[in-house]
Amino acid sequence: MADIIIKNGNVLTMDPELGDLKNGVVVIDDGSIVEVAESTEATADTVIDARGGVVMPGFVNTHTHAGMTLFRGYADDLPLASWLQDHIWPAEAELTASDVVAGTNLACLEMIKSGTVAFADMYFFMEEVGKVVESSGLRAALSYGMIELGDAEKGKNELKKGKGFVNEWNGKADGRISAMYGPHAPNTCSKDFLIKVKEQAVADNAKIHIHVLETEAELNQMKEQYGMCSVNMLDSIDFFGPDVLAAHCVWLSDGDMDILANNNVNISHNPVSNMKLASGVAPVTKLLDRDANVCLGTDGCASNNNLDMFDEMKTATLLQKVDTMDPTALPARKVLEMATINGAKALDIKGGMLRKGYNADVIIVDMNRSHLTPLFDVPSQLVYSAGGSDVRTSIVNGKVLMDDHKVLCMDEQKIIDDAKEAASDLVSRVDAKN
Ligand SMILES: CSC[C@H]1O[C@@H](n2cnc3c(O)ncnc32)[C@H](O)[C@@H]1O
Ligand SMILES: [Zn+2]
């Protein structure tokens, strides 16, 4: 007897070998998918009727700062430098562990409700973040965000904290949590520090999550400091490889794109944040033409202002179309691949598609809705018309986290109340300081 059978669904497997099934079943046992077919002989403890819905792999959000949900709408419509230095960093200086717990709980709740099953996070108080993720049921690749600013003593401390986190959390929560090193960016961490981080990551067999060439200001600063851009500097220290998740990658030259693609670097494209902070347009179609693994992230809620991967997919495709003046650029299925298969590859998760032996990280999107009618093409409908609130059911590691819009693993109202209180207390403390 299996754990779960999902039946009567329009199954978007995202598996190029199997293809999609107009009316199929997905059988789940012991955290994994054991069958994807048109029908099954199996029986299960739980049978979920997905009639009128699309059954698909859940989304992988490859760049977040989950705790920043507390800053949703806090400092909008500002340039990145002032946004970070004058508003976000002073507010973050007041953050406590319990604030990050409240913010991360809110983020996990929002992600579960909108179909995300896994995310890559870089922030502070990561032990607390780990505990929240563990109890939420989600999957995550977590990193303690290290900012060293060329201060060797600070660097030592930061690396010690990063290492402590990696050693304690890698593989926790039945393997749902992996731990990465998180040097913030090449313009906030020195070359010497980045060399040490890479050595430590290799020694610990851990991956690295870093912001790269998000802004023109970073490009100019790097040219002034090193006589070369961030990608060339990182390449000169053999930083790149398939173990690196590089967020943003907006200001790339053709040569930079070759370096990233040739080194199998995973690139998290974060279009909403890049647009909101007017950072620029990442050359996604050129990267995909080079077979680079481009995945999709929301960034934190202070620069987005939500964690909805449907919004991210739509924005990604529209932005490439207008940037290239080509309406065929980044079609719906390709952007869905970025949000599922490519994200899973970046985080080394056996997921991103519905295939026998893969993680049972499955969502059901309700298509029986006015704004999703008529239904000619499932990928198009998901990317151009659907939204996070259309997700009806969410399953991670074979556990139902949300059933028919009811979140089972978290107390929704308490999380909202706690986050409201934490955000308001935090802002009062910040205001009192200034
Ligand atoms: C060291 S933990 C992460 C650090 O990054 C800050 N942050 C959030 N969004 C961005 C972004 O788009 N670019 C650069 N840095 C960002 C966050 O506030 C934390 O301080
Ligand atoms: Zn970021």
From TrEMBL:
- Check the record and name the CDD domains matching this protein: ATZ_TRZ_like
Question: Which InterPro entries does the entry mention?
Answer: Amidohydro-rel, Deaminase_MtaD/DadD, Metal-dep_hydrolase_composite, Metal_Hydrolase, MTA/SAH_deaminase
Instruction: Output one GO BP term.
Output: S-adenosylmethionine biosynthetic process
**Alphabetized GO MF terms:** 5'-deoxyadenosine deaminase activity; 5'-methylthioadenosine deaminase activity; adenosine deaminase activity; metal ion binding; S-adenosylhomocysteine deaminase activity
What remark does the entry add?
A: SAH is a product of SAM methyltransferases and is known to be a feedback inhibitor of these enzymes. As a result of this inhibition, organisms have evolved efficient enzymes to metabolize SAH via different pathways. The pathway found in methanogens differs from the canonical pathway, it uses the deamination of S-adenosyl-L-homocysteine to form S-inosyl-L-homocysteine for the regeneration of SAM from S-adenosyl-L-homocysteine. 5'-deoxyadenosine is a radical SAM enzyme reaction product which strongly inhibits radical SAM enzymes.
Family named by the database record: Belongs to the metallo-dependent hydrolases superfamily. MTA/SAH deaminase family.
- This one is known as 5'-deoxyadenosine deaminase
